[in-house]
Specification:
Rossmann fold, alpha/beta, two-stranded parallel ribbon
């Protein structure tokens, strides 16, 4: 999903900084795709679980790009575990990436976004709105991110607008489409979501009125209805 968002921003003419934790090769491939679109991009290693790494990555990006106008918090963890089997370590690890990570990155980017009157778009989840019994730590971490988004929006207004996109079942490729067809059958729009659906929502918050803030937009084809 992060790759798709980066490409969509590049198509819109943005200079894009992407981050990666360990997959250097995939990051370089994304840079090549952006270059093929005529876009300007850079890649920086960033482990959102590491406060020092986060701070250094944001500073490097701001220095290279001349500031920060838009932050998309997309890094996330997902795991299927029955509630009664979730360990403390698994619980903490989920929150470390899905909730604390966006907090750390947004906090590091705050002075640059305040200066540019920028925007933050956090990537939440339908799981943060509806309980999934075998994903309790995931759902709870995303629900916390939704609340964090609203708190940021209120605390950092009027300088920074903060919104959150909550994707439902998003698939990429034929194998995933077949594997999750049963979700499509339960969805009023009769298909699963695609990365471009999420990208369109992100672009709305990235380019729409700065006055729109504190909003949570579910991209689920009506699955939650």
């Amino acid at each position: 999903m992060g790759r798709g968002l980066a490409l969509e921003l590049a198509r819109a003419g943005a200079s894009v900084a992407i981050t990666f934790r360990s997959n250097f090769d995939e990051a370089q491939e994304t840079l090549r795709e952006i270059a093929a679109l005529g876009g300007d991009a850079m890649a920086v290693r960033c482990d959102v679980r590491d406060p020092l790494n986060v701070s250094e990555a944001v500073e490097e990006i701001a220095a290279e790009m001349g500031g920060v106008d838009l932050l998309i918090n997309n890094a996330g963890a997902f795991e299927t575990v029955p509630l009664e089997q979730i360990s403390v370590e698994q619980w903490n690890a989920m929150f470390e990436t899905n909730t604390r990570g966006p907090f750390l990155v947004a906090k590091a980017a705050y002075p640059y976004l305040k200066e540019s009157r920028g925007r933050i778009v956090n990537i939440g989840s339908l799981g943060g709105l509806h309980p999934w019994t075998t994903h309790a730590h995931y759902c709870t971490s995303k629900a916390a991110l939704h609340m964090l988004s609203q708190t940021m929006a209120k605390a950092w207004a009027p300088d920074i607008s903060v919104n959150c996109v909550a994707p439902g079942m998003i698939v990429h490729g034929g194998t995933a489409e077949a594997e999750y067809q049963h979700f499509a059958e339960k969805t009023p729009m009769k298909r699963n979501g695609r990365v471009e659906d999420v990208a369109a929502a992100v672009m709305f918050f990235a380019t729409g009125p700065h006055f729109i803030t504190g909003q949570l937009l579910a991209i689920d084809g009506g699955l939650a209805l």
